Amino acid sequence: MSRITSFARIAALVSIVATGDALHAQFLSPFATQVVNYSPGTGGGVFVAANALGAPSGGGLGNGSTNVATLGVGGSLTLGFDLTIANGPGVDFTVCENPFVFAGESFSEVAYVEVSTDGVAFARLPSRYTGPNTGLPSFTAPFGTYGGLCGAMPVSANPATNTLDPLEPAWAGGDGFDLADLAHDPLVTSGVVNLGAIHFVRIVDVPHGVGTDAAGNVIWDNSGVTGTADIDAVCVIQHTGTVVAGQPVIDLFLDAQGYLNLSVEDPDGAGDLDGNSIHCSFNGAPIGFRTLARRLVPNVTPTAHGYVLRSNTPVAGSGQHGVVTVSARDLAGHFSADQLSFGG
Ligand SMILES: [Ca+2]
Ligand SMILES: [Ca+2]
Ligand SMILES: [Ca+2]
């Protein structure tokens, strides 16, 4: 190789590196890549920590994966990533456990989810349980029973058997987590946990009938005394390479009056949304955008950037429950998704 060619190659390499995180990130795994700590508890399951690395091995709505790392009673699993998870619009990462649907409900074994910048201080995503306070009456739990916990949403994506994109949770499945829910956590406000630079996710067993949600309610699930959550994968949806000014903003939320709202917007205008890319699911099952809108959020208000849809009546306190997930791309391929679990 001549000296000039060699310099040219080095210059090209330097240029690629200097292009920064966005390009570099395209070549990094969007899944957990390291088992940082595995402290399995007792009970039954598959105690292979490496099963939580890489892509999910979803079994579809009716089947749970066995390619999992079981937490065990009192156990926890800390995973590391090549990418830096960052707070973008909506869901930033999903945790894939192995729930399955039975008679319209989910067999749910739930766990707390925590995030860390330094691997030492972990902030726990606020959890919500709306089931009975004395235990669940059946083998399964209604969709919408849990929020801010993994282990409720079935997983369909499985690159070994189908072409569903694991990073597109409306169809892929998995429990979605939005780092914005931690904005008021003391570890975040003090700067110890940086929502723009999350390097670790820790998943912690909920002690059966003892562990509480963020409001102090005792959490019950379908695990029984010796069962616990089984972790299949963690999928990074928003990271330092995807969080950009012009990306679409999907937002599912209950407003102050308890109405369900869905906004589908793009900072570049409604015309920048790729209409064909809007994917929706209800209780894990794909549903058309128009059907979802008609059934749940029929009141449509155009905005400068897209649409805001709202339910006819309040859903909070109405007895309605379920989990809605919506995702979309813009014409540049930028992505956003959101998921809302509601009930009670
Ligand atoms: Ca977010
Ligand atoms: Ca399970
Ligand atoms: Ca855009």
Q: Please bin the fraction of helical residues.
A: 10-25%
In the predicted model, the low-confidence regions spanning at least 5 consecutive residues are 1-18
The molecules bound to the chains, other than polymers, are: calcium ion
Tertiary shape: globular
Secondary structure: number of strands: 23
Give a short account of the largest sheet.
6 strands, antiparallel
Structural class: mainly beta
Report the C-alpha radius of gyration, rounded.
20 Å
Fold and architecture overview:
It is a single chain. The chain is mainly beta and 344 residues long. The chain folds into two domains: 24-236, no CATH class; 249-342, Immunoglobulin-like, CATH 2.60.40. It contains five helices and 23 strands. The chain has helices at residues 3-18, 21-25, 169-172, 186-189, 289-295, and strands at residues 32-39, 69-70, 76-85, 93-96, 100-102, 105-107, 111-116, 123-124, 128-129, 146-147, 149-150, 175-177, 198-205, 230-231, 233-236, 249-254, 260-265, 279-282, 285-287, 299-302, 306-310, 322-329, 335-342. The strands form seven sheets. Strands 1, 3, 7, 8, 11 and 13 form a six-stranded antiparallel sheet that branches. The protein starts with a helix and ends with a strand. One calcium ion (CA) binds at residues 87-88, 90, 92, 178-180.
Give the gist of this structure.
The protein has 344 residues and is mainly β. It is built from 5 helices and 23 strands.
Task: List key phrases describing it.
mainly beta; disordered N terminus; 5 helices; binds calcium ion; 31% strand; 4-stranded antiparallel beta sheet; globular; Immunoglobulin-like; 6-stranded antiparallel beta sheet; single chain; 10% helix; 344 residues; 2 domains
